[in-house]
């Protein structure tokens, strides 16, 4: 158990959902709900004062929606890990969330234990996606390409999967940020994706990392 409990914020426009999610985390020694928000704008305000480690974020909300909130939250607080928790699993929703840099994408029928594990994994730098989402993404991308990522490209991707930024990857591998970006560009092309989170999902599904 960490020295200090993980700080969790819940963002959903339905009070009953927020109450239900809070109840799922009540009593855990290592996770504490520090804030709730009913829309994206409120989430940004609460994040500044509550300083959460992880955010459970709904997608469809009035005003500023989930993806918009994620983009602004990541820009202002890149250390915060965001997990989408929604009833929507369409390609457009998933693609927008992945492009925004989420640490996970779960559906609202996820059991309590899966939510607990997802928050802990996200806080530790990992990523977690509902099996249905992963299957859809891999199916949409089609069969594995003939050109596989090189060992160096996989080293970069493993660090990205742990939540490292380009600068941190460059420092760890003793290469430049430009080289990191080049490796990622090649990985995206080989895996048939267009963003970091999708690359991690596909690489994990294909047991590359």
UniProtKB/TrEMBL annotation:
InterPro entries linked to this entry: CheY-like_superfamily (IPR011006), NreC/VraR/RcsB-like_REC (IPR058245), Sig_transdc_resp-reg_C-effctor (IPR016032), Sig_transdc_resp-reg_receiver (IPR001789), Tscrpt_reg_LuxR_C (IPR000792), WalR-like (IPR039420)
CDD domains in UniProt: LuxR_C_like, REC_NarL-like
Gene3D superfamilies with a match to the protein in the record: 3.40.50.2300
Pfam families per record: GerE, Response_reg
Response regulatory domain segment(s): 7-123
Domain HTH luxR-type: 142-207
Residues annotated as transmembrane: none
Sequence positions bearing 4-aspartylphosphate: 58
Keyword annotations: DNA-binding, Phosphoprotein, Transcription, Transcription regulation
Descriptive protein name: Response regulator
Species annotation: Nonomuraea purpurea
Lineage of the organism: Bacteria, Bacillati, Actinomycetota, Actinomycetes, Streptosporangiales
């Amino acid at each position: 158990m960490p020295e200090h409990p993980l700080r969790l914020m819940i963002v959903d426009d339905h009070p009953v959902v927020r109450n239900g999610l809070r109840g799922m985390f009540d009593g855990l020694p290592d996770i504490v709900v520090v804030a709730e928000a009913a829309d994206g704008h409120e989430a940004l305000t609460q994040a500044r004062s509550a300083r959460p480690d992880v955010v459970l974020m709904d997608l469809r909300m009035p005003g500023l929606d989930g993806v918009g909130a994620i983009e602004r939250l990541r820009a202002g607080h890149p250390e915060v890990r965001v997990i989408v928790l929604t009833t929507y699993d369409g390609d457009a929703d998933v693609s927008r969330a992945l492009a925004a840099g989420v640490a996970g994408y779960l559906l609202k029928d996820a059991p309590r234990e899966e939510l607990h594990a997802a928050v802990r994994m996200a806080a530790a730098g990992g990523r977690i996606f509902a099996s249905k989402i992963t299957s859809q993404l891999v199916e949409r991308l089609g069969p594995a390409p003939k050109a596989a990522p090189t060992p160096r490209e996989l080293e970069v991707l493993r660090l990205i999967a742990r939540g490292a930024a380009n600068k941190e990857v460059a420092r760890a591998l003793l290469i430049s940020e430009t080289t990191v970006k080049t490796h990622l560009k090649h990985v995206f092309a080989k895996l048939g994706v267009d963003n970091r989170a999708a690359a991690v999902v596909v690489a994990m599904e294909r047991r590359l990392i």
